[in-house]
TrEMBL record:
<dbReference type="GO" id="GO:0009166">
    <property type="term" value="P:nucleotide catabolic process"/>
</dbReference>
<keyword id="KW-0479">Metal-binding</keyword>
<dbReference type="Pfam" id="PF02872">
    <property type="entry name" value="5_nucleotid_C"/>
</dbReference>
<keyword id="KW-0378">Hydrolase</keyword>
<dbReference type="InterPro" id="IPR004843">
    <property type="entry name" value="Calcineurin-like_PHP"/>
</dbReference>
<dbReference type="GO" id="GO:0000166">
    <property type="term" value="F:nucleotide binding"/>
</dbReference>
<dbReference type="InterPro" id="IPR006146">
    <property type="entry name" value="5'-Nucleotdase_CS"/>
</dbReference>
<feature type="domain" description="5'-Nucleotidase C-terminal">
    <location>
        <begin position="343"/>
        <end position="501"/>
    </location>
</feature>
<keyword id="KW-0732">Signal</keyword>
<dbReference type="Pfam" id="PF00149">
    <property type="entry name" value="Metallophos"/>
</dbReference>
<feature type="domain" description="Calcineurin-like phosphoesterase">
    <location>
        <begin position="36"/>
        <end position="253"/>
    </location>
</feature>
<protein>
    <recommendedName>
        <fullName>5'-nucleotidase</fullName>
    </recommendedName>
</protein>
<feature type="signal peptide">
    <location>
        <begin position="1"/>
        <end position="19"/>
    </location>
</feature>
<dbReference type="InterPro" id="IPR036907">
    <property type="entry name" value="5'-Nucleotdase_C_sf"/>
</dbReference>
<dbReference type="InterPro" id="IPR006179">
    <property type="entry name" value="5_nucleotidase/apyrase"/>
</dbReference>
<dbReference type="InterPro" id="IPR008334">
    <property type="entry name" value="5'-Nucleotdase_C"/>
</dbReference>
<dbReference type="GO" id="GO:0046872">
    <property type="term" value="F:metal ion binding"/>
</dbReference>
Amino acid sequence: MRVCSSFFFGLAIVTVVFAYPLDPANKHNSDPGSSLRIIHTNDIHAHYSPFNRVGNDCSDSDISKGNCFGGAARLVTTINKLCNEHPNSLLFDAGDQAQGTLFYTLGKFNTTIEVMNELKYDAMCIGNHEFDDGPDFLATFFEKINFPAICANIDTSGNANLAKVVKPYVIIDKHNLGVIGYITNTTGSISKAGPTISFSDAATAVNKYVKVLRQKGVKRIIAVSHNGYQQDMDVAANTHGLDLIVGGHSHTYLALNASEPGAGGLYPTAVTNLDGKATYVVQAKAWGEYVGYVDIAFNPDGSVASLTGMPIHMTQDIVEDPAMASNIAKWRKPFDAYGSTVVGSMAADVSNAGCKENECALGDLIADAMLWSQNQIEPTDVALINGGAIRAGLAAGPVKVKDLILVSPFNDALVSIKLSGKSIRNIITGVFDKKSVTNGRPVIGFVQISGARVKYRSDASPGQTIVSIEVGKNGTWSMLDDSKTYTVVTLGYVANGGDNIIDPPLSPPTLAALNVAIGDYLQQFSPATPAIDGRIKDTAK
């Protein structure tokens, strides 16, 4: 039984916000006394202190303007309040607690363990960034949390340490509830999961364990997923017996009104499953900026009779739990001084929003910094970075070391590689076709570039998307020459096959850390005024 703290502070929540109309013939078959409240978080990425709109630590100005969000202390207040309102409350996390701030960069899982155990999660699925220090290190984390880690579409038979602590599902006997975990099957190419484990199709794994759970007499079945919103809808449509998917990975904000600015869909999204019934999909953006919850009543066959709930915005109106706020302040002291050095300044706020889908101003700045940095060492033609490496924005005003670590928390290092023009063309084509030219596998990431300009057509068929690629400097451009060898600076992650952008892995020696290169650039060119300049242009628009 979940035990909630008896203390909560100043949070008012409207419990019944919407209700999905259901078949009237079923309404008398529901059992109102057996309803559950499912509370969920996802993609916290070590954001245990409050943050501003671009993901940096809150300044006095942010606080005075009400532009400060999230933090573990507000999670405690909100989750305790939600739990105290409903006697049958369960709390799940959809992965990626790891990586994103100095709490993880310097402290690894230490704060994560403290926060998650205090919140008394009932289960979590694995996120791809949980593997950032390898599967054996992840196993030690799972041994220290007081709740199960679940993932049904992972093969751990080659890793005894992880196999001991990861199971495909958990049964919560009190509520006759089965909870299946799953992760994106691209994890092998976007993480440091390594060769001892592998990942399979999520829907196939879910159907397998739905059958297992039904054979055990479990009728109520949900999933906790680190797979992405669109992909979760596909899983919902291609599986039997799931009532709810609690999702993560894509950082999607789902709203009660899907037309709300910034919303990626409806909270929750109803999908017709293979049984002809509804499977509901929810997600709560990222970083703990939102906490989601749904109240579910079930029919005798385990299907959903009614469902209500909402995403709750973790604004400054929610009073922080004082004990957790005190602990967070204590736990971050060792790295506050470490990150306080000013390296430059920004003329205005710049966000990382859109960097994984399109040219973005921050991506232009970072790629320019990479190219400038490497040109101090050797003549370099092109810089290329995967958009997923850019994890936060930069606020106007002074830029500190800790801000750059938020932008690039992975300890990524630059590498210099030699590529033919044809290889560069294949790489760029693969990014826009979302499929590698050389190995045929999906390309997971977008790229930000410097020293090159790309024109493409979003309405073209695969193989026809690229209109032109130019390479140049100082305002002089020429068409990419397939037969010429170019010097390219990128990240070690990309050069080693990350996101399947480059194939085969090249494994070159590493150079300066990315955040150091950005800092050196800002020291020379502050205040920085990044803006999209059309270096990646869709000619179909």
